[in-house]
Amino acid sequence: MKLSAFVFGCASAKVMFHTRNPGDCHDTCVLNRVCQFWTFDNRMDPETEQRRHECHHQNHNSYESIHDAEYMQCGSFSEPQGAVHSNCRFEFGANDFGRKFIQTHTPKQCMQIYELCRECSAYEWREYDTVTGEIDGHSVTEHVPGHCVLRI
C-alpha cells in the first residue's frame, strides 16, 4: 500500500497548525515535500471570536468546496511567496495531511516549519519513521521518510 493511500485513511479535518499569515503558510508548504497546495483559513471562529490563522496543506486531490470563502487565501507550492490568491474554495477536510505527515528533506527544513508555526512547542526530525494507522478497519504500518514531527 502506498503512503498516499495511508495519508487519506488517516486524514481528518483537524487543523495542521496556525501561522501568522498566508505567506508563512505558503513557506511551510514549500518546505513540506508532500504539499502541493496550501490554504490559509482566516475566517472568524464563532467560539473565540478571533481569526483562525489555520494553515492547511493539500495534494493534487484537493477539490473545490462550497462555503463562504471571503477570508480564505491559497496558492501552490510552486508559486513565489507573493502569489497569494483570495476567495479560495479548496476543501481542506478530507484531504488534509495533518501534522502526522509533514515530510522534509533535512532537519533544518523541519526547524524552519517549526519556527513558522504559532503554537508549536517543539519539533523532532526523524530520517525514517514508522507510523501505524487504520484503513478500512485494518491496522496498517507505513514508513515515513524525513518525518517532521511538530509538538503542540
From TrEMBL:
This is Oidioi.mRNA.OKI2018_I69.XSR.g15048.t1.cds. It comes from Oikopleura dioica (Tunicate). The lineage of its organism: Eukaryota, Metazoa, Chordata, Tunicata, Appendicularia.
